[in-house]
Amino acid sequence: MSRAFLIVMDSVGCGGAPDAAAFGDEGANTLGHIALACAAGQADEGRSGPLRLPNLDRLGLGAAIRLASGLAAPGLGAEPKGRWGAATEVSKGKDTPSGHWELAGVPVPWDWAYFPDTVPAFPEWLVAETCAKAGTMAFSATATPRAPRSSNAWGPSIC
């Protein structure tokens, strides 16, 4: 094989992981559930009928859903024309970095550090200072966020 294309679609799962219950995700199958909703007429705003992704389906998307979850997703039943696969993550975390590292051949056998499980997660002074240095809007867990006076739009902001 002279070249390969790896297509990564974050948050477009096609079957639950073996540890899904530990994260409250039993029965997860984002793409399969979207296909079922389309076929049932529950996704007809601005479109209608079954989910149609003909190019991705010919590349093996429907086959990957069947392999990963056992679901024959409506509208995604093409015979694959390329090599395709579905993987089961072995890393402990349910997060994007773990998945990307694993795709690159580096499984993550440890738990990452996580944000505190408090509300708010960070002290307001830290958030305010971070936003000030980043030039983004101020944020407070107890007040309505507001854009800086010099801003006409919210724009993307992590603060």
**What's the mean pLDDT score?**
83
User: What portion of the residues fall into strands of 2 or more residues?
Assistant: under 5%
- Total number of helices: 5
What global shape is seen?
extended
Order of helices and strands: HHHHH
**Strand segment tally:** 0
Taking the sheet with the most strands, its summary is:
none
Fraction in helix: 25-40%
Number of domains: 2
Low-confidence blocks of residues: 147-159
Structural class, judged by helices and strands? Answer: mainly alpha
End-to-end separation: 45 Å
| Rg, nearest Å | 21 Å
Structure, briefly:
The chain is mostly helical and 159 residues long. It has helices at 30-39, 54-58, 61-69, 96-103, 124-134.
Describe the secondary-structure layout.
Elements: H1 30-39, H2 54-58, H3 61-69, H4 96-103, H5 124-134
Detailed description of the structure:
The protein has 159 residues and is an all-alpha fold. It has two domains: 20-103, no CATH class; 115-159, no CATH class. 27% of the residues lie in helices and 0% in strands. It has helices spanning 30-39, 54-58, 61-69, 96-103, 124-134. The longest helix has 11 residues, at 124-134.
Please supply descriptive tags for the structure shown above.
single chain; mainly alpha; 2 domains; 27% helix; 0% strand; extended; disordered C terminus
